Amino acid sequence: DIQLTQSPSFLSASVGDRVTITCRASQGISSYLAWYQQEPGKAPKLLIYAASTLQSGVPSRFSGSGSGTEFTLTISSLQPEDFATFYCQQLNSYPRTFGQGTKVEIK
Amino acid sequence: EVQLVETGGGLIQPGGSLRVSCAASGITVSSNYMTWVRQAPGKGLEWVSVIYGGGSTSYADSVKGRFTISRDNSKNTVYLQMNNLRAEDTAVYYCAREASLVATRGSTYYYYYYMDVWGKGTTVTVSS
Fold it and tell me: Tens of pLDDT along B26-46?
């Protein structure tokens, strides 16, 4: 199975900050990676797929990059509604796997 | 509007069985990859199972041999039959559609998958 490791697991940031989350895969997955945002008590919401394609309706402050084994999710200017947990997921092969999550909290 | 609604969760004793359902509207389950993802209390997301448009299935090792995914096309509903339940199966179970985008580079086709529609989840608690 492909393992995904996110870093950091937790980060504290202020409104307006630029935030970057990294996801590393245990083997190459080309661009078969998605990012999700999950607020407490809610279902995950798709942000980005194919490593860098923004899902319809998602604000442009979110962006994704990377290929192979290293990927990043960047929030260019953190907004109050962005405080949540973010997950990467590989869709290169089954079983699909998720990273352990990165919780973004208010500083 | 595309919507997935999970039902059937509850409290069940270890070793028991439970079936959770995912009723779809706005999409046809038989034309899509439909998946189950679970989240234990305070933990991350764990992929559980998928049923492909053609009806083939795949499972996580942690549930293989105990869980069965199926669908009823007439009801446009996907099911997850869970047998021999364990305490570690306690989780919120989400149903999601795995969509795909086809991209071409020259004569090569690339299929990019992503889970774009999610239900709100149903809670399964395994405890005596």
Answer: 999 999 999 999 999 999 999
Cβ atoms of B99 and B114 closer than 8 Å: yes
Chain B residues near residue A42 by CB distance under 8 angstroms: 120
Residues in chain B closer than 8 A to A44 (CB atoms): 37, 45, 94, 115, 118
Closest CA–CA distance from residue B84 to any residue of chain A (Å): 21
Cα separation, A44 vs B118, in Å, equals 7
Which is nearest to A38 in space by CA: B19, B1, B115, B25? B115
**Cβ neighbours of residue A47 under 8 Å, at least 6 residues apart?**
A34, A35, A36, A37, A54, A55, A58, A62, A64, A73, A86
Region label for B23, one of left (φ > 0), alpha (ψ between -120 and 50) or beta (otherwise): beta
Q: State pLDDT tens for residues B2-21.
A: 999 999 999 999 999 999 99
The predicted-structure confidence for A19-58, as pLDDT tens digits, reads as follows 999 999 999 999 999 999 999 999 999 999 999 999 999 9
